[in-house]
Amino acid sequence: MFLKEKHNFWDTVTFRLTLWYAVLFGILSIAGFSLVYVKFSSSLRNQVDSELKNSIVEFKNIYAQEGLNGLQEEFNRESEANGKSRVFFRLRSSKGNSLAASDLSEWLPIKGFSAFPHSLNESQESFVTIHVPKKHYNIRIANKFIQDGNWLQVGQVMSLNEKFLAEYRKVFTTILPILILCGIGVGILMARRAMSGVQKVAKIAVQVGTGNLDLRVSVKNEGQEIKELAYSFNNMLEKIQLLVREMKDVTNNIAHDLRSPLTRIRGLAESTRLADENIDAYREMAGVVVEESDKLVEMINTMLEIAQTESGVLELSKSPVDLYEIIGNAQDLFLPIAEEKSISLVFKKLSGQVMIMGDKTRLQRVIANMIDNAIKYSPPKSNVLISIEKDDSHIKIIIADNGIGIEEKEIDAIFKRFYREDSSRTTPGNGLGLSLALAIVRAHGGNIQVKSHPGQGTTFSIIFPQESFV
Length: 470
Ligand code: ADP
Prior knowledge:
Low-confidence stretches: 1-6
Oligomer: single chain
Mean pLDDT: 89
Helix content: 55-70%
Number of helices: 8
Strand content: 15-25%
Order of helices and strands: HHEEEEEHHHEHEEHEEHEE
Radius of gyration: 50 Å
Bound molecules: adenosine-5'-diphosphate
Shape: rod-shaped
Strand order of the largest sheet: 2-1-5-4-3
Number of strands: 12
């Protein structure tokens, strides 16, 4: 386990974040140091250039006032004072000959020292840098025409500047690995911190995987993204838990609802066989077996249809449906049953036709189920009223009764598979009708609303949105 984790470290986001951080840190450090280096070296060079320029101005004045001899003397003095190997001065003719110069013995062997500077022009100084390989430093030379085609040449070694820059480079190359190490350290810390929330979620996910669905991720300061992840994860767990609970309920209900008729069938067959009855008793038994089996098959088919409709597997065969026609047909179908209970079953029509795009057979089942319920759960001599409302955005089919009603807290539950209110248990039914009705209406983009007052009655509204208008 430990070894496996060690190997996988290279694959982790923590490692990648650290690497990115260290690389970025390194690049930024190099860029920062390089920038400062370039600034330093250019300001040092500018300083040298301005010193050289000042010398030229000074020598130019001396030449103008004291002539060639005066200049030669000044060259000697300056060279003595600053060191003949550190500075040099000379006045050259237009042909390049030396008219006056400091001691050049250490300068003349430098390759390119006496070459004519191509950038030299009448108006301003031209600067040249020559690298001296043996001594590992550069020399900087300024040239300027002064008068009669003669030009002044002054130069100095830049060894001090280069020493400083070399020191700077050395410090930088020593510090860089330390900086990168710091970058890695900070990177690991930050990556660990960033990933701690994800790891928390992953840990809970592993524990949930072992079957403990009650666990939830708790996050405090891990940042918005992690909070969102934890929230979605907890939400998902909530839904899974609910689903598992529902599945358990459904399985229990299926087991219960299948066992009762099967036990009845078996009991009847057994008692008929033991009593050694005549053929009529066997016929009667066969009749009951067929009836009970039909109920079972119908129940299983309805369950399948609900599952297929909810999951979208079952395709609706849509066509323009005349709501008056299907409600009228359902009314005709249920009138005898309503009359048996002295219930008035009235359908209040609007003027004009009301059409929607839908699956006629399935919508017929929805309406039949609602009317059936309204009659089933109403006492004799009550009323069931079917009506239609239509506005620009909705079509509503309203089925209102003044029957036993539904407790407020049970209203959501009645749409669950196999759910039956305690007060309804004496009435025939399997608790699947409303689940199927809601699945079908939702597959049409609509919904079912319920308003109910126990003991006063219930109103179901089947609502179809504008999209289903014909
Ligand atoms: P079933 O009618 O077969 O029991 P349904 O899914 O159609 O199954 O209805 C679920 C439950 O909702 C019913 O058992 C009943 O308790 C309640 N119910 C449905 N319609 C009405 C109604 N019109 N009045 C009162 N209760 C109702």
